[in-house]
Amino acid sequence: MEEENKPSSEFPPELIAYFTDICNGAEGNPLEYLSQFICSHLVGDEWIDIRKALLLQLLTQNDTKKRMRLHTILVGVAGSGKTEVMLWWRENMEGILVNGELCSKTGLVGDARGNRVSAGLLADYDGHFVLVDEIDKMPIRDQNGLLQAMEEGQYIIIKGKHRQPFKAEVRVIGSTNELEKIQKPLLDRFDFVYRCTMADREERAKQTAKIVDAFIGKTDEEIAGMLRGYVKWLGDFSPMILPDDRADVVRAIQTYILKAKEVEIEKVSYRSLELSILRIAWAMAKLQRKNIEKQDVVEAIVFKDRILRKIYGVNIKSG
User: Fold this and answer.
1) Do residue 250 and residue 207 come from a single domain?
2) Is the pTM of this model over 0.85?
3) Are residues 92 and 60 in the same domain?
4) Which helix (H) or strand (E) holds 157?
5) Is the residue at 1 inside a domain?
6) Same domain, yes or no, for 151 and 289?
7) Distances in Å between the alpha carbon of 3 and those of 13, 16, 232, 235?
8) Helix crossing, 46-59 with 294-312: angle to 10°?
9) Which CATH number fits the domain that encloses residue 33?
10) Which residues neighbour 253 within 8 Å (Cβ) at sequence distance 6 or greater?
11) What's the average model confidence in pLDDT over 147-159?
C-alpha cells in the first residue's frame, strides 16, 4: 500500500525534481503556480479563479463510490472566452467538444431503436472530459442523461422492460449564454459556476504578448504536457481526513453554514455545498500530495463562497 502511494517514477530525474519542488511549494502555492498556465491568453479577473477551478477539476479521480469528480459551467455572451477555453481544453487535455444544440445528431446519451441500443458519446468518453457548448440548448433527454453521468458516473437507457446502464464517469465543462435557462437539477451538479465578461481595452492591451505567444502554439503544447505529467506523477494518492483533523473540518463547514448570512443556504443542496466543499478540499490536498486539513477546507469554503454569493446571494440592503 505504501508503495502504491508513492509518486510515479516514470519520468527523467530532472522532471521528478521539478515536480517535487512544485509539490513542496518551491514555486509558491501549487494551485496559484500551475493554474496560471491554463489558457493564459484569456484576460480578466474572473479567469484567475476559473483557471484554478479547471486545474482542480483535472486532479479529480474517476471514483463512483466517493464521487470526487468536479464540474464547471461558464456563463457569458459570445466572445467572452467560454468557447475559447473549451477549445484549448480539447486541443490540450484530450476532451471531446460537442454543441448542445446539435446533441441530437451526435448522440450524447445514445438511444434504443429496433433491437439495437446505442451507447452514445458519454459512454465512449468514460473517464475523460466532455465539453458541452451551449448546454442550455441540449434536448431534455440529453440533459437528463448528462445529469445522471455527472452525479452517478453512469446513465440508463430504457428499452421496453429492459434498463441498460452505461458507465460514463465524465468530468464536464459546459457553457451557456444565460444561466437561467439551465434546469435547476442540472445546474446543481456543477461545483464551479462562473460568469465571463469582456475585458476592457487596457486589460487586453496588457495581455497582447500572451496572445501572440499562444498564437504561435508551441507553448500551449509544452504547458499541457507539463500539467498532464504533474497529474500523472501524483499517481493514485487519495487524500484522507485523519481522525485528529476531523473535528476541525466539521467545525469549519458548520461555521460557514451558520454564519454565511450573505448566501441563502436553504436554496443550496448538500451536493452543491457540503459535498462540493469536500471535493474541492480533496483536490487541493491532492495537488500537494497530503491529507485534508482544516486549512484546505477553509480555502475550499472561500473558493465556493465566491460562487454561491453570485448564484444564491441575498440583497443585503433590502435584507
Assistant:
1) no
2) yes
3) yes
4) strand 154-159
5) no
6) no
7) 19, 17, 15, 11
8) 130
9) 3.40.50.300
10) 274, 277, 297, 301
11) 85
